[in-house]
Every structure is written in structure tokens, then in C-alpha cells.
Amino acid sequence: MSKCFQCHGEKMWKDLKQDRRKWEGVLYRMVGRGALWTEDEINTMAVYLATGFGPQSEKAAGTK
Fold first, then answer.
1. What angle do CA 20, 26, 28 make, to 5 degrees?
2. Would you state the pLDDT for residue 9?
3. Is residue 57 in a domain?
4. Residue 21: which of 50, 62, 61 has the closest Cα?
5. Distance (Å, whole) CA 54 – CA 60
6. Rounded Cα distance, 16 and 31, in Å
7. Nearest-CA neighbor of 60 among 15, 30, 9?
8. How many domains does the structure of the chain reveal?
9. Distance set, CA 3 to CA 34, 56, 62, 64 (Å)
10. pTM
């Protein structure tokens, strides 16, 4: 979260509701824009975001 909050607010990932693969694409685009993350960090963040804020998550369902 500390890496994302450098440029984004919390609402950003709550609104997207993407699966792991789509989150990886978003994170790799951020690397293209200058984010300094390792492949392991990207994989960990993508799993976290898809689990907590993906299309099937309770948090995502609660925000509808």
C-alpha cells in the first residue's frame, strides 16, 4: 500500500474490481511510468488487490 499511496488514493483500486491478471497489467504499466518494483512485489500486490478488491471479493461486493 505504501507504494501505491505515493501517487494514488485508496479509491483507485476499490473502483477497478479487476482479477489478478488485469491487476498485473496495471502494475506493470506503473513500472513503465517509473515505479521501482520487483517481479515478486508485483505478483504479491496483484494477488492482494484481486483477493481484496477483485470482482468476486466481499469488499468489492460491499461497495456496489
1. 100
2. 81
3. yes
4. 50
5. 6
6. 18
7. 15
8. 1
9. 12, 24, 25, 26
10. 0.76
Here the cell at position 9 is 488514493
Q: What are phi and psi of 61, to 5 degrees?
A: -65, -35
58 pLDDT tier (thresholds 50, 70, 90): low
**pLDDT at residue 30, as a whole number:** 92
Answer whether residue 61 shows pLDDT above 70: no
Domain assignment present for residue 12? The answer is: no
How confident is the model over 19-52, as pLDDT tens digits? Answer: 999 999 999 999 999 999 999 999 999 999 899 8
User: Hunting for cell 460491499 — which residue is that?
Assistant: 62
Q: Indicate whether 22 belongs to any domain.
A: yes
